[in-house]
Structures are given as C-alpha cells and as structure tokens.
Amino acid sequence: MIRVVSLSLAAAVVSLGFFIASRIEAESYKKYIEYSNQRALSDLASSITNIDSALQKSLYSNSPAYLSSVSAEIWRESASAKASLAQLPLADAHLDKIQKFISQAGEYAYAISKKTYKDSSLDDSSRQNLASLSENASALAQNINNIKSMLDDGRATFDDIIKSQNIKNEAASNSSNTASFSSLEEDFKGYATLIYDGPFSDHLEKQAPLFLAEKTDISEEAALKIAADFLDIAESDLSFGGESAGKIPSYFFHGGNDDSQIYIELSKAGGIVFNMSRSGAIEGENLTPQKAVDKARAFLAGQGFGDMKESYYTKVGNALIINFTAVQDNVTLYPDLVKVGISLGDGSIRAFEARGYLMSHRTRTGLKPSQSISDAKSRLSPDLTVLSEGLALIPSKGKNEVLCFEFICEDKQKRHLIVYVNAQTGDEEDILILIESENGTLTV
After folding, report:
1. Phi-psi category of residue 204: left, alpha or beta, with phi > 0 → left and psi -120 to 50 → alpha
2. H/E stretch holding 379
3. For residues 94 and 185, what is the distance between their CA atoms, to the nearest angstrom?
4. What's the gap between Cα 170 and its chain centre?
5. SS3 (DSSP) at 423
C-alpha cells in the first residue's frame, strides 16, 4: 500500500513537472511569436515609409539617372512590404486595398524607371500619379506606425489586433486602445500625413558587421551578465529568449511584468548590445528635448561610443527618439547610426538601436573630395536655396559608401531638404526631405 501511494505521488510529481515545463515552454514560444510579429510589422512600416520617401524624392529630382534609381528603390521596397505583410497573422483582415496599393506602387515605379531611362523628363500626368501614390503611402505609414506605437508602449498585443479585426461597432473603432488592421483597410483613403523615421537603413542587411570583425564569441552566461549590467537589473530578472543567426548572430533576453516588458539583444561576437526596448506607460513630460538629447549623449559616452553627433529626433508619445551618427575628421558618417529613446518623464533609456553602428563602424580612409564645393552647388536645382553645407559619408544602394557634399536647402515653399552631391564625380546621389513639426525634425 505504501509503495502504491509512493508511486502515485511520484507520478503526480513527474506530471506536475512536465506541466510546469510545458507551461514555461509555451510562454517562451508565445513571447517569441509576439517578437517575430512585431519585427514583421516594423519591417512593413519601414518599407511603406521608404516607398513614400522615394516618391517624394522623385518630385524634387533634377537628374534622370537619380530618378531612375529612386523608381527602382520603390519597386524593391514594394516587394519587401509584400513579404512583411505576408508574415503577419492577418489572414482574415481582408487587406485587399493595401495589398493592391503596394503592388501598384511597385509596378508603376518599374514603368517610370523604364521611361526615365529613355526620356530625361516626366510629364505632368506622371508627376501627379507619383504625388497621389505618395499621399496614399503617407496615410498608410501613419496608420501602421500608430498600431506599432500601441504595441511598443504596451497598450495592445498582437492577440488584441487579431481579436479586433472583425469588430465593426463604432465604440470599438473610436477606442484609442483598439488596434485593428481591418479598420486600417476601411480608412485607407489616401489623405496625406507624413510620418518618417531616420535615414540610411536599407543597406544594413547587405554586409557583414564590420565593427565585430575581430571580436570573439561569448557564452550565453556572459551575455546574460552584460544584458543585466546594461539594464542595471539583476540577472535573475531576465529570461533567455533564444538565439538569432542573422547578419549579427545574437542572444536575446526578455523580462519585466504585465506593466512593463523588457527586450534586449546583443551580439555573440564581443557581447555588444544593439537592440533594447522597455514598454510601458510614461507619465508626464518633465524633460525638455535638449535635456533628453544631453542624457542620450551621456549614455552613449558611458557605453564607450566615440565622437557622436545628434542629427534629428522625433517625439513619440512621452518619449524622444534621437538619431546619432559617428564623426571622423569633420565628416558625418551616416552609416554609423545609433538611435536612443529617452523617457521625457524620468529620463530613463526606453529604447536603444545600434545595428547600423555594428554593421558599419571603423576608421575610414579617403575622406577628401576631388570636386570643388562650388561646382557641386552649381549642379543643384535652380528652385533650391542653399542654407548650409558640409561633408558627409552616406551609403550607396549596395554595400558601398559615398563621400558627398551635404547641402541643406530651402525650396520656394520654404520647405527644407538635403541634397547629397558626390564629392568625387559631382553626380546627384540622394535627396532627403525634412519634416519639421512641434514633435521634432525627421528626414525622408
């Protein structure tokens, strides 16, 4: 009898152990799926924003070669957007309008690319079509970023999005806490609202991480200690989330509670943190933008970053997202991009992203122009007035980097933009449109 009871008790203990292990594994898998969905949504938002950015640039270009290049970029980003949309669990959302728009943008850009290869100018009809496509892309980018913002600050999860796809009542559609791709499809009308992220990110997946070239791999245990030190929390507050075998092989960990989730990712080579986010509400605004920039700069210095220059920032809720770039010999190195998110409530670090820095940073050579800045300036559109100028290193559409003269300009409507002219050949390389508002300055 005692043996039977003992065996029964042992079986119960084993069953309980399997149940607990299964529950932990299920929770870990659920978090992995949530992170994967959020990354696909982020990639979708980036692609749509890049489509609009390229459409805007096409309207300002004075170079047939550059216009053809921008058209090819729209076609490429369209394919990327469709791939990201397909990864999201939105089979029942009936996103016909959005899918059709993404396809049409790519197809029309391909036609424009062929046209400008043979003909140096665009007719009024083509420009009107490009402007109309841009308005649609702007609206779509804003709506997707609104949903992404709700996920980032913890007001919604992907489960909430999926559950709300078929909600049609007015109360649900007006709720600030309801994220729905179905309502996004219904509201897709093409009104123009420009929401943009920082420049120079589409090249990052096309090369090896140069900053990590001579660094050795670390263990999972060492990575955990580095992650905990970076966050200034105990190691026991973090759980191992998995490994990534992408361009930057990495470990990632997660922690927090229902009110605030933490995600952190660091490279296996050298144990360098390059992605971190803390979700959760931010109460109040006690810091000015300049104070937030100062805190972000001090944070980067404390993490061992060298000469860094802040470029543009945007206010998202009660947080400030600031773009920093490395500087060498008074040349701004845009590929070496770092983003820091600062809480305007208490000044804490809420987001950190240094993928560009890890992919690109090293000491450059050949940062001397062969063209004169006056000759480069003469190649600009006559509709532009130059406000300031300097030297900058920007990425090409492939793996290369291009030394350029950077001209901050103003058009006849007092709109600001930046034109990059190749410092070696004098060719127009890129155009960025500045979006200036009370929430900061961003670039297209």
Report:
1. alpha
2. none
3. 8
4. 32
5. coil
Amino acid at 202: D
Confidence of residue 196 (pLDDT cuts 50, 70, 90): very low
Residue 118 pLDDT grade (very low, low, confident, very high; cuts 50, 70, 90): low
Q: Do 324 and 296 meet the contact criterion of CB atoms below 8 Å apart?
A: yes
For 298-338, write each residue's pLDDT tens digit.
999 999 898 899 888 888 888 889 999 999 999 999 999 99
Return the SS3 of 31: helix
Question: For residue 167, which phi and psi values (nearest 5 degrees)?
Answer: -80, 125
Identify which of 213, 317, 223, 314 has the alpha carbon closest to the alpha carbon of residue 275: 223
CA distance 153 to 174: 19
C-beta of residue 181 within 8 angstroms of C-beta of residue 93: yes
Asked if the 373-443 domain carries CATH number 2.60.40, the reply is no
Q: Which residue has 């480069």 as its token pair?
A: 376
Whole-angstrom distance, CA of residue 69 vs CA of residue 116: 10
Instruction: List phi, psi (to 5°) of 174.
Output: -95, -5
pLDDT above 70 covers a percentage of the chain that reads: 75
190: helix, coil or strand? coil
CA distances from 393 to 73, 187, 305, 359 (A): 20, 40, 18, 15
